[in-house]
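Proteins fold reproducibly. Consider a sample protein:
=====
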Amino acid sequence: MANIVLSRQQFNVVGTRPIRHDGTDKVTGRALYGGDFRLPGMLYGKILRSPHAHARIRAIDTSAAEALPGVRAVVTAKDMPGADDRITDLGEGAVNLKYLSDNILASAKVLYKGHAVAAVAATDPHTAEEALKLIKVEYEVLPPVTRVRDAMQEGAPILLEGLRTTSMGQKGTAPTNIATHLHFEKGDTAKGFEQAEVIVEQEFETATVHQGYIEFHNATALWNTDGQLTVWCSTQGAFTVRDQLSQVLQHPVAKIKVVPLEIGGGFGGKIPLYVDPPAALLSRKTGKPVKIVMNRAEVFEATGPTPGSWMRVKVGATRDGKIVAAEASIAFEAGAYPGSAVGAACMCAFAPYDIEHGTVDGYDVVVNKPKSAAYRAPGATQAAFAVETVLDEIAEQLGLAPLEFRLRNAAKEGTRRIDGPVFNVIGNIECMEAARDSEHWKTPLEGPNRGRGVAQGYWFNVGLQSSCVISVNADGTVNLVEGSTDIGGTRASIAMQAAEVLGLRAEDVKPTVVDTDSIGYTNVTGGSRTTFATGWAAYEAAHDVLRQMKDRVARIWEANPDDITYEQGVFGVAGSPDRQMSFKELAAKLNHTGGPITGRASVDPQGHGGAFATHIVDVEVDPETGKVQILRYTAVQDAGKAIHPSYVEGQMQGGAVQGIGWALNEEYFMTERGAMANSTFLDYRMPTTLDLPMIDTIIVEVANPGHPFGARGVGEVPIVPPPAAIANAISRATGVRLRTLPMTPGAILKAKGVI
């Protein structure tokens, strides 16, 4: 495996590879996950789910279930406070409170198979399961619609009677499944296409896929008699859970504490609420702690997958390889309620390229599937699949190498995206050049039925709010308290940034992720923001510690605080080289020279900086079966500055693997009645180590000027290029273009006319 770091700036701790702080806990089983959590007197909750994809709820009779020995409580939507039909921001994006509440427990209608209808708490999980069978629900079954284009047609079954299309700030008057129409425009697209000498226009579809995290959704709730609600759960954002609970339960934030346990994967799928409110309501009714854990089928059928999509992309270029116009129409399945990632898809679609004239339209469309959720660079993967495939076709028609064509049109500092923002310092060109100069690209691919593909990807990243507290121990170590759930090694990356400022080893910083009562507000772990934003909070908190320690040194030495220096973990006085005191020596004196020192910071950084990736893949396609074998894969990515290169490489490799699964195997296979027919890992085919080569990585470092160490978020963009790169490789191996995901063996044989 070739893991390469093209590094520019060196630090003492940042850029090194210490052992992660929570590693021993994770590998020895000491780490506490939601499934491990127990409380005395705890009851077990189960949720009754709709067998229909679309139906009105006429009546619910829970009396038989409530009479079953061992059952302590049953709740339905009637136990939820009436939610307002209004939009509010509760974390990663705005939500409609009415829709959020109805998705937790359906009130008037069920909108997908698996939609929660009622919840039971019993003394053991088996009794709770039996009780579900005794709940009688009277449904009026309605026709479902599960494909985005069908849902957009006139006469399609309407999911939400009150939904009207919002377009360009105006709300329509007719019932519809199209929640939002977005429009972005730059230059004069029609004029641009008049200049084009080569034009390619194609349509694309992608299936619904799931994040595939191993750990099930879970929550344990204790609603005390004093009104204090405590929830222990697996989540990407404890404060987001707290705020959503406060809104849907109409309970004061001050009376809700959320304790984030270790998380067994999320990738964006563990931001929304599912089981937390029912567990809380059952606890309030019983006076006992209640624990609810989903099973795998529930995770597939009732939590947020990524949207299926339909896209049309048109690109025009001149004979010398200059893109002069681009146009995209992107329609996403939001699932049962509005709020797909189509806006992000519109932002990312053409972002890697400098295009003078362009138009992008986006449509957020409800269908009878679970409400969609984020999945690593949400929306960008689908958009890149369409755009990068069209660009590859143009390059072929022009007789240009695919990387050369992309380099001729690459966005750079000062380029304005079609959706408006202007790029600051970015590493887009550097990623393409690193790919072009890589051993992989330079090595000829030999043999029949083989092809090499390349694709570019972009994610804008986010900043958002984070808080951090650092306290100094007498032995010269420090404790770091933060509120960011650690999914991909962020305890280490945040601790390392504090250690860099303090002149300590990474091992001398002990990071702890705490509950919502124990740290200032911190947004979700998502959007590739955690190492950037919470790392920045740690950076500021560490500087706060240093300021106080310099004041303490000045007091001890009776010197001016402005004359105190600090280098390589040692304090000194300007002009007095004989006066020195190490960080550890001073830490031992704190209790006798003024008391403890604690640094703190809360930040809302804006300079998050976009991230780019270039992926190269070699495939071999079996001409008889259509099976695709990944022979070699290289992921190139700009990390700004890789705080912990091993974890950056892991993010790049993990994103690539998920993208490979999305490209070749993964899909929600829906029946005509709107049911998912493959809601197990046996039938929902995710790639394993047996399906993959080692993923080679090349880390490019173009420092982000918006961060003290130059860091950019790295977790999102590696999932963006794989489907497009693989589609381009399959085209070169077989001579046919596939424009639908997944590109299964059957799809390949059908495209070749074999079946």
